Amino acid sequence: MYNRLKHKIKLKKFSIGIIGLGYVGLPLAIKYINKGVKVFGVDQDKSKIEKHKKGISYIDSIKTNYFKKNPERVSTKYSLLKNCDIIFICLPTPLKNKKPDLSYIFGCAKNIRPNISKGKLIILESTVYPGVTREIKKIILEKNFEVGKDIFIGYSPERENPGDKKFSYKRTPKVISGYTKNCLKLVDLVYSYIAGTRHKAMSLEIAETSKLLENLYRAVNIGLVNEFKMICHKLNIDVLEVISAAASKNFGFKKFEPGPGWGGHCIPIDPFYLSWLS
């Protein structure tokens, strides 16, 4: 199965299914669509599906008529995934009572299971705590399936930057990982179509934890610079000039500017994911 799927990917004769057509899943879909890959989309939100079929985008920065031209390739039904060689999971992972809520992810895994056959690659892109990809594997896998031989599993944390028109995976490296060496090779091959550089993590858990560190780093520094701004304001000092002066240092300093605070659905909650697990 490995060589067969590898051959299909190399010849661009593979198809992709994306579960969750939000700010992560939809841009991912478009990246592959632009490369001439056949893409299928699944989302439980019926209103999103209807908008796609009408060519209406619910994300201001994204415009596409792909699903309007191919209405049979978007649905709320997981049975659509039977047509796909590679399946991406791009679902939200919110907090519930300050604890990770992975109900979307685990519910998705249960829905995937009846639609899985040998020779498929499943990649999780959602932000999770370390170990979740292996938990998904336990839910999805049939007893007679061997990972790395019959079916393939990987994890690659999304690095979308909504609103940034210059964002591109041609400039931004993609962290990738695989359950086995064969899994990693296939994950790397799939992302080679859209990502110029892929950083191969040594394990699924390293890749999963790297996403938490990325967002924890941003959360700490966003909070720091906003507090620092208030101190400068009281001292009647131009905080932007202070930051500019500090940024002249060519080592050990990363420039952060004051803003409206923590944004997005990841940065404010990921510290809780890490502290909850530890």
Give your account of this protein's structure.
By secondary structure, the chain is of the alpha/beta class. The protein has ten helices and ten strands. The protein has helices at residues 2-10, 25-33, 46-54, 66-69, 103-112, 132-140, 181-191, 204-234, 239-246, 270-277; strands spanning 15-19, 38-42, 74-75, 86-89, 95-96, 99-100, 121-124, 152-155, 174-178, 198-200. Strand 9 (174-178), helix 7 (181-191) and strand 10 (198-200) form a beta-alpha-beta unit. The protein is globular, with a radius of gyration of 20 Å. It starts with a helix and ends with a helix.
Break the fold down into its secondary structure elements and pairings.
Blueprint: H1 2-10, E1 15-19, H2 25-33, E2 38-42, H3 46-54, H4 66-69, E3 74-75, E4 86-89, E5 95-96, E6 99-100, H5 103-112, E7 121-124, H6 132-140, E8 152-155, E9 174-178, H7 181-191, E10 198-200, H8 204-234, H9 239-246, H10 270-277
Parallel strand pairs: 1-2, 1-4, 2-3, 4-7, 7-8, 9-10
Antiparallel strand pairs: 5-6, 8-9
Helix pairs in contact: 1-7, 5-6, 8-10
List descriptors.
278 residues, alpha/beta, eight-stranded mixed sheet, 39% helix, 13% strand, globular
Summarize, please:
The chain is an alpha/beta fold.
Biggest sheet overview: 8 strands, mixed
Q: What's the helix-strand series? A: HEHEHHEEEEHEHEEHEHHH
Q: Give the strand order of the largest sheet, numbering strands 1, 2, ... along the chain.
A: 3-2-1-4-7-8-9-10
Q: What is the SS-derived class?
A: alpha/beta
Give the overall shape: globular
Number of strands: 10
Approximate helicity band: 25-40%
Name the poorly predicted regions: none
**Into which percentage range does the β-strand content fall?**
5-15%
Helix count from the secondary structure assignment:
10
Computed Rg: 20 Å
Rounded mean pLDDT is 91
Distance between the termini: 38 Å
